[in-house]
Amino acid sequence: MKPIHLLGIIVFVIAGCTTTPAPAGAEKPVRYASAVQVARYDSENRTPTASLEMFPSIEAVGQRPYRIIALLTRGGNREDEGLIMNAIAWRARQLGAEGLIAINDSKNPLINVNTTVRVGGWPSSDSGNKEKPLFRAYAIVFGPPQTPNETQK
C-alpha cells in the first residue's frame, strides 16, 4: 500500500473515533435515580444543570432568596446513603435545580414530623424493627418567590 493511502486511512480512522462531550445534564442516570420520587411544586420546564449547591439545612442557605421547585424522596438502607443522596442530586439537576437542601433535622420549619429525625432521613412507620431511613431534599432555584399571579400564567 502506498504511504499516502495508509496515512489517509489512519487520519480518517482517528478523526472518526473522536467524541464530542455530552451537553450539561445529559449524563446517564446514576444508581437509584429511577427510584427517586419527585413532587414538583411548579410546572416550569428548566434546562438541566451541570452542578448544584448543597445545603445541609434551610438555615445554611442564609439570606439568599430561593424557591422550592420540588421535593425529592427515596427510602433505602443506611449504608446506601451516599448512593441515594447522589441519585437525589442527579434528579434535582435534571429538574434544573441550582441548589439542594437536605431535610435531616426536626428544626426544619417546612416539615411537620412527629417522629425522631435521623441524619439523612427518618425511619418509615411501617418498617417495624427494621428501621429504614427516608432520604429527602428540596430542589431549589435562586431568586424571589413566585407571586400568585405568576403561578397562574
The helix/strand order is HEEEHEEEH
Q: Which of globular, elongated, flat, extended, rod-shaped describes the shape?
A: globular
Mean pLDDT: 75
**What integer value in Å does the Rg equal?**
22 Å
**Major β-sheet profile:** 6 strands, mixed
**Can you tell me the number of structural domains?**
1
- Determine the fraction of residues in helical runs and give it as a percent range: 10-25%
**Number of beta-strand segments:** 6
**Cα end-to-end separation:** 68 Å
SSE class:
alpha+beta
Helical segment count: 3
Strand content: 15-25%
Name the poorly predicted regions. 15-20, 108-120
Describe it for me?
- The chain is of the alpha+beta class and 153 residues long.
- The protein has one domain.
- The protein is built from 3 helices and 6 strands; from the N terminus they run H-E-E-E-H-E-E-E-H.
- It has helices spanning 3-16, 81-94, 148-152, and strands at residues 37-40, 53-55, 66-75, 99-102, 122-123, 133-142.
- Strands 1, 2, 3, 4, 5 and 6 form a 6-stranded mixed beta sheet that branches.
- The protein is globular and about 40 Å long.
